[in-house]
Specification:
Strand content: 25-35%
Number of domains: 2
Order of helices and strands: HEHHHEEHHEEEEEEEEHHHEE
Strand order of the largest sheet: 1-4-5-7-8-10-11-13
Helix content: 10-25%
Oligomer: single chain
Length: about 375
């Protein structure tokens, strides 16, 4: 009887151990995240939006300055104290070009106080992303994803941003201003992390994809790139947690259903990143990293804030008329109509994401993610 009891306990113990070992988890830290741009020869039939100097030449002309005055302002040769005839320095001239109730106002805070300059929008046939609504009709562009050949792709954000010089780049190149913005923020911003859990991640099958924020920033190597195989503690704050069923097929990881993606980001750039009806697609790379896309519907006003909160500095570096960006985002929004006005409050968009292998720990220090190998 003693032997039978021991065997029974041994069998139960082995059964529990086998169940605990059934699930495998791999973890990753996000090394790159920004608007996905897909450049084509015919995507900007009206031309790329003007860079900073011709942009401000047009703005100053609209404000009533003469050609000589425009040249003086742009060359920084204003009179004593650096002021123009209206008593403004060169920065304030562009900033306070809006008018509200007859008074000059900050145009980056009140972009609707100037006429829509109608920035050029991308018109190309291809766009990275997903068919978010399952519809293809006369009011929807027949966009095609260049990787999957999926039709009916919803990515209006790409149309808004695609004819800006800073986003008119081809992979593997990264857009200059966004790359600099991301590079400056990630040393202070807590890392974004993802884990994938399934029975055997070396085989095709169902998995669970989970996004979280870490308690510490990413760690970089000697070249400035995000270092792989670093351990991060998961922030338990629910505002930066989302999970979705997924699947792995031939080295490609995809979400199996639309989900709500939420992440607390850098308060100086975009405080809260949120997407509805989100989908993801990542491809496993030879070095065990992941590259792919996150797509969904994002409140367009938060996208505007991401750029406009840096005011003239962003307008100059990005070479994009900020009120023009505001009007374009509002015009191209295609989701979440306001119940009172009927205007859409969210815009479809796709973001490029790249990740390196990592280890994840909950806040109490107990390991919940194993090595990638």
């Amino acid at each position: 009887m003693r032997l039978g009891t021991v065997v029974a306990h041994l069998i139960l113990g082995l059964g529990a151990a086998s169940q605990a070992m059934a699930a495998e988890t791999r973890a990753y830290a996000v090394s790159w995240f920004h608007v996905a741009a897909y450049v084509q020869e015919d995507d900007c039939p009206q031309g790329v939006n003007p860079v900073a100097k011709p942009l401000y030449q047009r703005i100053l002309k609209d404000l009533g300055y003469t050609p000589d005055e425009i040249q003086t302002i742009l060359e920084g040769n204003l009179g004593e104290g650096g002021k123009d005839k209206n008593g403004r320095n060169s920065r304030d001239i562009g900033t306070y070009r809006g008018k509200l109730d007859g008074q000059p106002v900050d145009v980056y805070v009140h972009p609707y106080t100037v006429p829509d300059p109608k920035i050029h929008l991308a018109q190309g046939r291809y766009a990275n992303g997903f068919d978010l609504d399952g519809k293809v009709g006369p009011d929807k562009r027949p966009s095609i994803d260049p990787d999957t050949q999926e039709t009916g792709v919803d990515n209006h954000l790409r149309q808004v941003m695609g004819c800006s010089h800073q986003f008119h780049t081809k992979l593997p190149d990264r857009p200059g201003y966004p790359a600099n913005e991301w590079d400056l923020s990630r040393d202070d911003m807590p890392a974004w992390v993802m884990s994938v859990t399934g029975e055997d991640l070396n085989k095709d099958g169902d998995v669970t994809i989970t996004f979280d924020r870490a308690l510490e920033p990413v760690r970089r190597d000697a070249n400035g790139a995000v270092m792989p195989d670093v351990t991060y503690r998961i922030d338990p704050d629910a505002r930066s947690h989302s999970s979705v069923p997924g699947k792995i097929v031939k080295g490609r990881l995809t979400s199996a259903a639309p989900f709500h993606f939420a992440m607390t980001a850098d308060s100086g750039v975009i405080p809260d990143f949120e997407m509805n009806q989100a989908q993801v697609r990542f491809d496993l790379q030879p070095d065990k990293s992941l590259k792919g896309y996150l797509g969904g519907y994002q409140p367009w006003i938060s996208i505007y804030f991401m750029f406009a909160n840096l005011s003239a500095g962003a307008e100059n570096s990005l070479s994009t008329d900020m009120p023009g960006l505001y009007y374009a985002l509002k015009r191209m929004a295609d989701y979440d109509p306001d119940p009172h006005t009927g205007e859409n409050r969210a815009i479809s968009g796709t973001y490029r994401m790249e990740m390196v292998p990592a280890f994840l720990l909950p806040r109490d220090g107990v390991q919940n993610a194993v090595a990638r190998r």
